[in-house]
Amino acid sequence: MTSLCRNLAVLLLFLTASPLLHSHLFTRAASTSPPVTRPRIIYMTAMGSDDNYEDDYGDEDHNPNHTPEVQDKVKNNFLHQSPPQLCQYDPCSENEEPCEKISEKTGCLCPGVSGAEEPPHAPRIQVLQPISEGDNRGKIEVQWCAPSSVVSGYRVVIEGSEGLEFGGVSRRGFVGSLVVGTKVCVEAVNSAGHSSPSEFSCKRYDLPESSDHKLLAGIIGGGVALLLLLIIAAVIFWQHQMRKKAKRDSADGLGNPSYSTEGTL
Length: 265
Description:
8 strands, three-stranded antiparallel β-sheet, alpha+beta
């Protein structure tokens, strides 16, 4: 009987304490379990759009340091930025300002240029023309275009003689009279050396066609064309006269019954 009472008391005590134990265990489990989170959804928009991405979280989840005004300003500056412009630089113009100086003033872009630590590329020779007037009468003018290199000067080399030196901004020079067929080359020079001759930096001198020769050729050509027109006109006129004569003879034969090609009846 005493044992039975003791067991009932223990059971009653266990039933009384179980709700408290259950609540404690549930609270501990809830505090230690990781929070349930939802995946962040980012909506991608077209490039250049002013819409920000949207997610499933409220405004409180956004970055407090987010500044849309600054981002929009940077975006607009990028979109409205004009493309870089090439420098207005003519490599064939006499006394042309170096392209790097033009770039420093305007911010334009220069073509690729090899540095001063390597020999320059070969310039391109343009014309060899004799001078017939002025102080340089009887000389030959040599014209060339600058290469895409750092150049401190130019040298005009004539076949069989020493070269003539010219400044780095020069694009032409005068040399003495040349024999037809003489080879002339232009070299670019800097502190690292000089350019090597190439097919476009050398040219052979040839006499240009004079205006008198052109006038004479024009006169001869015009005379030949006029003579051909006169011959053609004479042939046409002769054929026309022959046709008229044949018609006249045919009409005379039909009007005279005694007429016969075999004789008179």
